[in-house]
């Protein structure tokens, strides 16, 4: 009986065909190696209190047109993609929330203090808890896909007049344009808003392998000259990491923040790990 091994088959094929097969095999191997890790799901939680459903509703309301429904524990995207909502893990530590949040954590783990401008509570960073697959699905899975959704707007046309590029998805660009027009009516705010530090850049958050929301074109950093960032104020952060005692600092007027919040943007100045230049579109938290 003729028994051919793979390598024999390859040997009898002509060169071009063999190269094609080898290339294909290599690409399959590479794809398997780099497949995103599927998160382990613990025992499916029983939503006895209705909290998960309330949280799902909050997300769906915040992003109209993006979801066509939900199951007990998943949201269904406009293209029928199902995304698990709650991974069943309870009482995650602050670090676990940052490193491996599920969609439920993103929406409901920490509440954003809409009308409160007092110093943030310890380890309350509403907005820093992000489920990365959600943002990749919403705004683009790769730098190229995100770029294809960016459009240019003029930031504060009357006073700053600088072009910035942001995502058109969820009307983010239109909303930022409205924010910009409103802010332009307050000449006393120009100094805080000029020289915006950046909207789109494909990078990971410093010291982590998590993508920054700056990757998705839904974020703007205003003038760093009047901003405070917890890492800049605390040289010890490099050894202590996030578990650090911070003294809150901020110079950004509340009125600026209120205008952003009105259009679905949260402010990094309401985080314990404060980042007062940073605004990002996160309507599910408002
Ligand atoms: Zn930022």
Shape: globular
Question: What is the mean predicted local confidence, pLDDT?
Answer: 87
Strand order of the largest sheet: 1-2-3
Could you tell me the CATH topology label of the domain at 136-285.
Muramoyl-pentapeptide Carboxypeptidase, domain 2
User: What fraction, in percent, of the residue positions are helical?
Assistant: 25-40%
Total DSSP E strands: 8
Structural class: alpha+beta
Bound ligands:
zinc ion
Biggest beta sheet attributes: 3 strands, antiparallel
**Element order: H for helix, E for strand:** HHHEEEHHHHEEHHEHHHEE
CATH architecture of the domain at 136-285: 2-Layer Sandwich
Radius of gyration: 23 Å
Which regions have little confidence, pLDDT < 50, spanning 5+ residues? 1-13
Helical stretch count? 12
End-to-end separation? 71 Å
CATH C-level name of the domain at 136-285: Alpha Beta
Q: Which range does the strand content fall in?
A: 5-15%
């Amino acid at each position: 009986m003729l028994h051919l091994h793979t390598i024999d088959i390859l040997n009898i094929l002509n060169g071009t065909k063999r190269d094609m097969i080898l290339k294909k095999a290599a690409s399959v191997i590479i794809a398997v190696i780099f497949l995103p890790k599927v998160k382990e799901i613990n025992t499916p939680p029983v939503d006895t209190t209705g909290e998960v459903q309330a949280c799902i509703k909050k997300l769906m309301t915040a992003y109209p047109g993006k979801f066509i429904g939900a199951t007990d524990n998943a949201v269904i995207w406009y293209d029928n993609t199902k995304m698990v909502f709650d991974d069943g893990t309870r009482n995650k530590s602050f670090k676990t929330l940052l490193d491996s949040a599920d969609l439920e954590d993103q929406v409901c783990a920490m509440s954003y203090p809409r009308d409160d401008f007092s110093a943030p509570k310890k380890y309350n960073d509403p907005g820093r808890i992000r489920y990365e697959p959600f943002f990749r699905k919403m705004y683009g899975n790769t730098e190229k896909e995100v770029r294809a959704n960016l459009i240019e707007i003029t930031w504060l046309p009357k006073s700053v007049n600088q072009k910035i590029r942001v995502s058109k998805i969820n009307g983010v660009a239109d909303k930022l344009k409205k924010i910009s027009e409103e802010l332009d009516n307050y000449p006393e705010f120009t100094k805080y808003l000029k020289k915006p530090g950046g909207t789109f850049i494909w990078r990971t958050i410093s010291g982590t392998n998590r993508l920054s929301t700056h990757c998705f074109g839904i974020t703007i950093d205003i003038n760093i000259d009047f901003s405070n960032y917890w890492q800049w104020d605390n040289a010890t952060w490099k050894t202590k990491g996030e578990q650090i005692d911070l003294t809150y600092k901020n110079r950004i007027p509340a009125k600026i923040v209120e205008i952003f919040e009105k259009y679905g943007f949260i402010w990094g100045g309401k985080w314990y790990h404060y980042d007062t230049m940073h605004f990002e579109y996160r309507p599910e938290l408002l």
